[in-house]
Structures are given as C-alpha cells and as structure tokens.
Amino acid sequence: MKITSLPIHFLAVISFLLLGSLVNAQEHSVAEANDEGPVNTQQEITDYTNHHLKDSHDFHLFSYQGSDGERHSVGFSLPVILWASNGPVAFMSSEFHHDIDGEVVVEKGGSRFVNLHDKIYELEEGAEEIVMGEDHHPVNAHKPFDLSITKSVFGILLVGLLLLFWFGSLGKQYKKKSIPTGFGRALEPLVIYVRDEIARPNIGEHKYRKYMSFLLTVFFFIWVSNLLGMTPFGFNITGQIAVTVCLALFTFFIVQFSGNKDYWKHIFWMPDVPVIMKIILIPIEVLGMLTKPFSLLIRLFANITAGHVVVMGLIALMITLKAQFGAVGSTGLSLVLTLFISVIEILVAFLQAFIFTMLSALFIGMAVAEHDHDHEHDEEGHEVDDVEDVRESFV
Amino acid sequence: MYNLIGAGLIVIGGGIGLGQIGGKAMEGIARQPEAAGKIQTAMIIIGALLEGLAFGALILGK
Amino acid sequence: MDQLLNDFSPGLFVMQAVILIILILLMKKFAWKPILSSLDEREQGIQGALEAAEKARLEMKNLQADNEKALQEARAERDAMLKEAREIRTKMIAEAEGDAKAQADKIITQAQEAIAAEKRAAVAELKGQVAELSLEIAEKVVKQELSDKEKQQQYVDKMLQDATLN
Lengths: 395, 62, 166
Description:
By secondary structure, chain A is an alpha+beta fold.
C-alpha cells in the first residue's frame, strides 16, 4: 500500500481530520502558518490551542503536505478592514501570507500593518519592523480600530443567516397552514419552550411579550454559535470575550431601561429597612446591578473556552501519548475520550444558551415585577402569588 | 503563585457548593418526584449563578 | 484579567452589536412575530374549541333535562286526561241511569193511568150493555110470559145462564 510509505506525521494529520469531522475537532494546524509541518510537540499543541481560542483573520480548514514536499493550506482569506490613523484601510488577509508573528509588513494607505498573534498592529511612523518590549507588548505599534470580517464575524454572520433562513421559513409556513412541516416541526417546540419555560414564568404573563424577540434571538444565537463551535470548521464565536460582553450588555441595558419605579427604589432606597442600612445597601445594590451582566458574560465565555480547551487537549492526546501507547492506542484513547466529552459539550452548548436566556429573563422579570409589600393590595394582580401564599400557609 | 492558590480555593469552594446544590436537589426530588421539573430548573439556575461567581473570581484572580 | 482585556477586540464588539441589533429586528419582523402570533392564534383556537365543546356538552345536558321534563309533563297530562275522562264517563252513566229511570217511571205511570181509564171506560160500557141486555131479556121475558108460563121460566133460566157475568 502506498499509505505505508507516507510519513507518519501525515497519518496523524489524516486521523486528526477524520476524527475531527467525526467528533468535534476545531483543530486546524497552526503550524502550517509557519510552514513548519504538523503539530507535534507540547509547545506547538499549546500554541495551536491558544491560536484556536482567539479570533483569526483568515479561515483555515486544514493543511497537507503535497507531493512536492511543501505544505498547502486549504481555506480562504477574509477581508481586513481597519480604521487606521490615516483613515480607513481595507485589504485581504492573504497579504500577510498566513504570518501571525509580525514579520510580514503590509503597507496600505500610508500606514504599515503587521499581524501579531492574530491582532493587527499599526506600526508607528517610520518604524520598519515591530519591536517587542519587556512585557511582550510591542513598543512601536498600536492597535487600530479593527472592523475586519474575522473568522468570528464570519461565524456570526453565518449564524444570523442560518437563523433567518430557518425561522423565516418557519414564519412563512404559518401563512399557508397552521401546523408547520419538515424542519419547522422541530423548531416550533423550541420556540414554545423558550416562551413557556423561560419568558413566561420569569417575566410574567402580561409583560413577557415585549421581550420575546430579544430572548428568542439571543437563545438561538448562542445555541447555534455553541454548536457551530463543535463542528470542525474551528469557529469559537461565544468563546470571544467581545461577543459575550456585547450579549451581556444588551441584557444589562434592556434590564435598566425596562426597570420600573419599584426596581429603582429597591436599588437606591430599599423600603422597610432602617435609614442607615439603606445607605449601606446602595453601593451593594449598585454593584449587584453590574455583577449580574458580568457573571453572565464570564459564565458563557469561560464555559465555552473551557469546553474547547478540554476537547482540544483530548484530541491532542493522540500526539502526546503516541510514545507510550503507539499511534493506534493513543488515537483510540483520544477518540473515546473526545467522543465522551463532546456529548457533554453538546449538552453544555444547550445549557449555556438556556442559562443565559433564563437569567436574562430573570433579571428582566426582577426589573419589571410589581412588588406588593403589604398584601392588602392583592386585588391588583398577582393572583398566582396569593394562591401560592395561601397554599404555603396551609402546608 | 498566590493567585493560583486562590483560584484553587475558589474551585474547591465552587465544587462544594455545586455538590450541595446537586445533593439537596436530589433529596428534594426523591421526596417529591412530582416537583422534579421545578427543582431541576431552580437547581440549574442556582448552579449557574454559583458557576458565574466561581468563574468570575477565577478569571479576575488569574 | 490582563490577558482578557488584551483579547477584547473593540471591532468584534461593534460588529457583534450591529449584527445582533439587525438580527433581532429582522428576526422580529420575519420570524418571531408571525410565529408567535400564529402560535397564539392556534392556542386560542384550541381554547375556543374546548370551550365550545364544553358548552355543547352542557347544552346537550340541558336539552336532555328538558326532554325528560317534557316527557314527564306529557305523562302527567295524559294521566289527568284519563282521570277526567273516567270521571265524565261515570257521571254520564249516572245521569243516563237517572234519566232512564225517570222516563220509565213516567211511562209506567202513564200506562197505569191509561189502564185505569180503560178499565173505567170498560166498566161503564159494560154497565150500559148489562142494562141494555137486561132490558132486552126483560122484554123477551115479558113477551114469553105472555105465551107460556113454563116456557117463560125455562127461558129466563137459560138467559140467565148465558148472561153470566164473567
């Protein structure tokens, strides 16, 4: 067989890719960026994982060693759009030639740019190449405002289009018939789930309607993004801190703007407590107002990042344990463990979308709830609560 | 160094807390199986809040 | 934390914010609104159908009760009518009997009166005939006496024998 004559590295890459398409691999060799061959050492694996976790300016699927002995990478470059000191600049990321070490300098619009660890830096006036300082930050370059279509932006657009296509066609189906067919039949219960399990119980029967668009969009956006991160295309959308910050800020602003009198009163002048306690409670409540979205963004980011790190570490087992178990043994071990953790990650993908939406709904519900401190006002709504109270006093 | 010890402590604390939540939820479900759905939802929410706290502290401390 | 701040990309944040706002608006217009409104419609339809079924069931029950009531009423009416008819019959029979008796009595009385009148007339006629007959006999006897005494006697006897008053 010809395969036996191929270098063992290539076999590793092949099994890597096969496994990836079967299970989860976000891997696409980082080393090919430097044309150094497949990932082999511990350091390379760490670099590779870190590279994957970050955003990227080009879209690599995989690379292979051609018959001419050179490495070819499969993928496509993405547009780089910058607001540099001399105005807007746009060019394709292929001009960096897959360089992420800041070696290739691209000159556009009167400015020089380098790609350092997937961040684009604009060199200061007159600088020919990037100079690193003591703290591993470049001293003669700064980051311009980067509106590039990076891999994550590409992924966000993809998710948006997918959602629009799926739910748009589901919405269109209702015009003709009252019961959806095909894929819509799977989507409809999810919409009902979000409405009946997340929005209604947390926000309240009368007010949930207004927030449904946000909650549904965010729920499906996070879920599909998480699932897209499980595919071998190497997306890591919800693992980008900027994305989760944005999502959490949306929740934060919606909560603040829909907060009613009671909500603000509970923050700045807590009723039914002594005045001195009120003064102590103000900073605590204000801090609580801010920590809620902060915990939202950190939770989503950390869960997805941790999931990707674990999956990639387990996939890397087939390289790190090759010496001990042999190619077949390490690959098998890696396959079993990755399969196991991937099943958990699929659950986490849903769970994080659910938690984010659930907590958003909970915070919104807290902001719009009408508190009844004394139960004489029971006639004005809150019948359910009263029933609960009565039941509790009996039990 | 101290940061790492702190992170470890946070993870231990979070683990204990999650264990408590899970254990109590199990007890609750065993006692009242018909309330399993409600208990699970509440458990997940509290677990998520705790998780957010632990992650936040971990990342801030790192 | 420094690592995170360094990783935070303002560009990606802006892109995500813009795309998310556009996505929410587009999804609201093309997906969530039609989906949620038709879900509501369907649920209301189901609710309405259930209520209508409940209403129909109640109506059916009412109808059955009405039927039962009407049946009972009809039965009571029939019973009343029968009773009335029986009473009328009894009454009629009693009346007829009374009438008949009175009529019969009247007829009998009339008959008795007629018989009495006839009898009186017959006695009166008989008296006349007897008187006439007696006169005739007396005449014949007188005639006979004038011819033969013995024969006269015989004749008288014979005549008397013939004229026995019955």
